[in-house]
Batch of 2 targets.
Target 1
Amino acid sequence: MSVFPESLLKSLDLCIKCGACNHVCPIFISQEKKEFLGPRAYLQIPRLIEEELEMSVDFIEYAYECTMCGLCDNVCPVGIQISKLILAVREALIDQGYVPPRQVASMPTKLSEEGLAFGSRELKAKWLPPDYQPGKGDTFFFSTCLSSEIPESTTAAFHLLRRFMEIETIGREELCCGAFLRLAGYKYLSEGALEECGNQLSSHTIRKLVVLSRPCLDYIKKLSDLNVIHVIEAIGEAVESGKLRFANSKKELSLGMIGYCDSYDLNYMAEDILSQIGGIKIIDMPSWASCGVGSLLSFKAGAKGIRGHFLKIFQLAKEMRLNSLVFLDSSLYLIGREISKGKTKVRIYDVPQFLLRFL
Amino acid sequence: MKEGELIELLSGIVGAENVLTDEIELASYSFDASNIRGLPNVVVRPSNNEEIIEIMKIASETGTPVTPRGSGTSIVGGSVPIKGGVVVDLLRMNKIIEVDEDNLLATVEAGVTVSELNRVLKDNLFYPIDPEIKGISTIGGILAEDSACPLSTDYGTARDNVLEIEVVLPNGKIAHLGTKAPSKQRHLIDFIIGSEGTLGIITKATVKLSPKPEARYGFFIKMSDSSDAISIVQEAEKKGIRISAFQAIYRDALKEIGEEVSADYIDFVGLIELRGDPLWLSSWVPKLREIISELDPVEIEEIEEEGIEGYWSKVSVVHDVMKTKGMTGLSISFTIHKDKMRDLLQRIDQASMRLNLPSITTFHPALGWIIATFLFGPEEKKESERAEKAISFVGEEVSRLGGSIGFGTGIGVSMADQYFKSSPDAVRLLVMLKRALDPKNIMNPGKLIPSREI
């Protein structure tokens, strides 16, 4: 009885098991190099399931450990697009009727009932004043489904953006773009969500869309007729043109930045922005202390790897005696907030929340 | 002892979080970079040599097979637990204990990878044995297999770059062999190096570091007769030229990379690298140029230092071909007397034609080292069977012509039968020593020595 399509298995069989991919995987490295948390094992186990192993609940949970950073794709000597195959495995599982773990399981229902991937419509409404209506501007802020779980982040971002630009937002009715559904392997649902989201956006005149979080940014970019940028890019432009200036920090602050593994531009931009603040010292974090774009999805699936990864990051911050950790994306900030829950002395922020302290 | 008891005992030694028993966890340790498969009963991840001693004592008492594992990069099944039992995963033992830059030594735990070691060294030093050329193999694995790499032409293999080792023996005793100076125990160290984990688990080593070369120079050559490669090596040696690396790809590979064969027939394409003091190079370069020119090369290109790295990919094409063709492959690695290299290259070509499989052959003329890879479509069962036949055939030819299988990669499972056929005396001696040190045959069983011989 076949779980995985033959074409997927054939692609997986091209793997020569050299192990190069493992040694660039941030989860593999931070979790003491456990073989099953590296890309190589992900490529081998589906075939083993076809041939010898039983399909199990363990495997379904395991399929969500990968945080989709894509670094493995760059080092494979035989050119396998590993992260794409791992995503294809998730799609195959869902196709066969298996249900992803934890919060990921409730995404389809939430999408059909509330038009969201997670959180709730009620909570999503709370970050804006109850009578908010978008104005006549053509630059919009896309708050994403995260706005119902980290309103402090969305509020800070919107507040900060409004300091230097005319910007609106769709508000309480904003629809899910489908990004996290895509990462979860709900391929068709995510495409449907993107279409609905696109229709909603078209009903407003939008020239530029500023998106809170990168997974959503990457996915919305598929709506080709939109000019889409990340919050950090918008802030960066304002800093460069002198529209935004920061006060100095009253105390000497040492901070570390945690960004996405492959968001080099955003990471550099964030560093430039934060270095404008006098009195803060940005300490370099090791390269493993970065995250894949699917980290939040893995976290919502209850994955142990990403959890352990963040615990390691907090431990490192403690050893380096950092005052603060600034997460360069709200989805990473959400994980950080959930995991740290008062357990760590290091204060955590995302970029907008951090910057607001110095305005 | 029941499995549950064993797991409890192991948890007592390393902590429950470092004992892996889930089906998926075990499955991920059931393979390495070879096509050999074997499921362990349990995986343990110790953090120091004392834990390994305790693990080994229990394994010895209960007769449980033990398979040590580093990064799992073996292409001969060295880290696959084919008899089940316990896999000892050394990747948590990755401390760099001491780096002595003045004396060019580094003492490291066995789980340290080559890139981890090279990363902490100052810019002018490096550890030269990098079989994967991505630096991901561990020092422990490299020593156990006595690995080689292209630079082995100059720097030797793993055994030539180690002074001290610490090894936990099958009876649970720990042995410190060697000192930081050349020692009388050299023959004991060499006994363990290359024994492929069948005589104990290497836990620590003091390896030799090398200074990075002051100057480098390259010759990229295309020639119409593979014996010319040998002639270059022989003439260079006579003239006192030290070649640091000489890697070539045979004409079978050239077909696969679509190399335009000019009017002159090209038998191989090679890269020769000279390294050292600029003064030596200024003497060697013109001499080597003359040697090569006298052999009437189809093409000869000289490369200055900065350009050399870029040329290495031109003689290292296996993965590119696999990528382009969407195929995977089986390899055999061996050394043969230089005079017989050409014969063997031709036999490999023959196998490729007779069995209708593309082959990519890389050889290192100065070492007499050849690696032949036969490619096949991963879903093609018949093709993969033919690939196994091709490897067998080449192995037999190597034995017939007095060569040695397993150089640079180890024998593992894949080559054990061939090795016994080709070198029965050596294997019988190994069996005697193995029986003395590991009477219960718990240490990496099925590797190096065919199981039926124990």
Target 2
Amino acid sequence: MDIQIRNIHKQFAGFPALDDVSLAVSSGELIALLGPSGSGKTTLLRIIAGLEFPDRGQILFGGEDMSRRAVRERNIGFVFQHYALFKHMTVLDNIAFGLSVRRKAERPARAAIRAKALELLELVQLGGLEQRYPHQLSGGQKQRVALARALAIDPRVLLLDEPFGALDAKVRKDLRRWLRELHQQTGYTTVFVTHDQEEALELADRVVIMNRGRIEQVGTVDDVYETPRTPFVFDFLGDSNVLDAEVRGRELRLPGAGEALVTDSIHPAGLVDLYVRPGDLRLAEPGRAGIDVRVTEVQRTGPILRASAALVANGSVVSIELPHLHHDAPAFRVGAQLRLRMMQFSVYPAPRTSSTGPTQTPVREREPGQRGRG
Amino acid sequence: MTQHTDHSLLDPPKLPFEPLLQRNAVVTEQPWVRWLLTAAALAFLGFFLLLPLVGVFTEALRHGLGVYRDALMDPDALDAVRLTLLVAAIAVPLNLVFGVAAAWAIAKFEFRGKTLLTTLIDLPFSVSPVVAGLIYVLMFGAQGWLGPWLIAHDLQIIFAVPGIVLATVFVTFPFIARELIPLMQEQGTDDELAALSLGANGWQCFRHVTLPNIKWGLLYGVLLCNARAMGEFGAVSVVSGHIRGETNTMPLHVEILYNEYNFAAAFAVASLLAGLALVTLALKSILEARHGGELSTSRRH
């Protein structure tokens, strides 16, 4: 079932938790609401569920207006971060709960409920544990039971609030893969909240990146990672270096650094911020193309060589991550004068020129010689 | 001239003095001080708690079992027991309902005036029971606000069972609510929201999710509420009128017997109340031992 979210506003004690949020989720999609704490992602999920109500705006399930419906009338499956399993009920009773509280006319026979619950238990790979109590289960098992319980009512949409937040790293990874498979198997329209960008990128068909009650960007994993629309998105999705740069005419260059990075910039003249990931930087020997830098720090950590280098022109320090196989050059030591190359980067209007800044759409630009990548 | 040296954890710097106690730095007092303090504490407990308890039973049985039994089988005493049980049987269920409802409202919902309600629930704890009794006399007594109307309709509240029940309900109101509020607040609302999202209605949610979560805390509260309901003296004394065989509860009966210098009988009835206290304590300890985790985390009583 598809979900339409239209112009949702929500305030908590005068503070805007959601500010004109609109989003369309298509049927069968697995979508992640990603953002730092306080970004409004959980509020949005709870509004979709009917656990909170918006001040303004509409929620539609399959074209049907749900905005004023109570949670129990929406037929959603909600999985809580801390599972919220009923402690005094067995696993089987937990899963059967949604069906057993139905009105008599709509309630399946006792045997049918039991069969359905057992079937779901198999689906979440916990067959044989039906007589256990929640306190006899591990965190990962509890989360699966919570999911099975939510699926038992055959929900129109499945909503998960930080589903793996309370689990340790190993279990989290396994469950993630498992949830992805389960989604492919069952095809429920699923929205989940996470603050873990790796989790969002790995699981979701599309990612909704939220910040301060607004949606910063919606897109596929490739979209948001390759073409971050705002500095926030760029920064949130990974490590970043921010460098002052300037557009003069149509040339983009770092102040004091020799050659232009781009000669056909579409940005108006003025100061810009150049965002580049440590992993998109390369070091080359002097004489090759690039910007003059001096290596200030080198550290080997497993498969990655981490280095810091200062731009000779203005002293700005960038951190660099080189893959293990790349650093064949012997010259990577502290004090070495090398050339820095940028495989790809993004350019955004600098905040200090904010008179025109926020209205512009930042456009990703690449070093001419590296256009083919990605 | 100063010299700086680094000391690792394995090689601590020398202290400029020898530590006073090498072995156990937590207990620094001399043995005789410890013994003295422990003995003082035990003596205090024995003198103020254990001795009176033993005293009640010794006095009750001083003139033998026969006198003891006669005192308890006295019609007035039996009436007092009956009335006390009746009052508790009305007051405790009422407070069970009020207490659960109040705790539910306070712990699971946000609303204006919540702080005021929480404070009001504590009122019976902070006001003297005698004052509570007087309030009811003021409201329902012959000269009270509703007095003329009650007389006109031939209803008697003060100096009758309804007044005793009202006073008892007032005094015991906080016990159940106070036990449940922190417990329910700690449990949060996720379980209930999960039940609602699965399609349960309000009653199913309460019956199948909330109630099982609070049952031991609730039992604990009921136990304390019951003990107080049966033992309440002050408020009940004001509204009862001390009519033997009619409005005399056990604590009032004890007082009457005592004032009549009928010590054996007074202590006999008192021993029943003391026995109730012991049973309550025992049950309370069992609950705490077995279901401590499911009781309210803060212990006030």
